[in-house]
Amino acid sequence: MKKPLIGIIARCELSETKMNLNVVHEAERIAILKSGGIPILILPPQSVEYNSEVPREMKRLSEEEKEILQTQIDMCDGILMPGGDKMYEYDRYVTEYVIQSKKPLLGICMGMQLMCTYNKKITLEANASKICHFSKKKKAHIVYLKEHSKLRYLCRKDHFAVNSRHHRHVVDANGFRVVARAEDGVIEAIEGTEDVFQLGVQWHPELDYEQSEESRQIFLAFINSML
Fold this sequence. Notes:
Layout: E1 5-9, E2 11-14, E3 20-23, H1 26-34, E4 38-42, H2 63-74, E5 78-81, H3 89-100, E6 105-108, H4 110-117, E7 125-126, E8 141-145, H5 150-155, E9 159-162, E10 168-169, E11 177-182, E12 187-191, E13 198-201, H6 213-224
Helix pairs in contact: 2-3, 3-4
GO cellular component, one term: cytosol
GO biological process, one term: polyamine catabolic process
Protein name: Gamma-glutamyl-gamma-aminobutyrate hydrolase family protein
């Protein structure tokens, strides 16, 4: 059986020697491999050093640059939109193109936030709760899954503990269905209303893939949706 090709959106980072890099985090790459997919990197299309740029001050994507992204995405069976610190226009365009193309999508942390904001001028709200949403703990808080949701079905639980690495959160699901919340009401997971697999989670299932059955089931369901 042919393994699905999974495009992971590159994240722009600065190395210890001040070199500008486009990277994929090892945990994401390994989770895709162990779940039966083939990971490849989707690179940004503009001829700039992204780490030196302020996203809102950058030139808009040209039609040619959009086509570069489309060509990369069309090669893939599914897309993983990972977490990160900055949202660039190419992130928003990729999210929009994937959603409109009805291609399988897994959004993690900022990736979920992009699913909720890619086509709207929505300001993410700062976390202000007794629950710590940015923690180095392996298990930071509990998420509660909505009854009859796809996420609850594949995880086989109505609640479980997750890690948490975000400073801000979304307040609107942008047409997606909210399927998990934290105790303080913060949206923790969204899913599409159609048959195609499009899931966003605010936590990082790739970080505890080996320890968490729920995390493994999320990645396995993502890959299996393309088989």
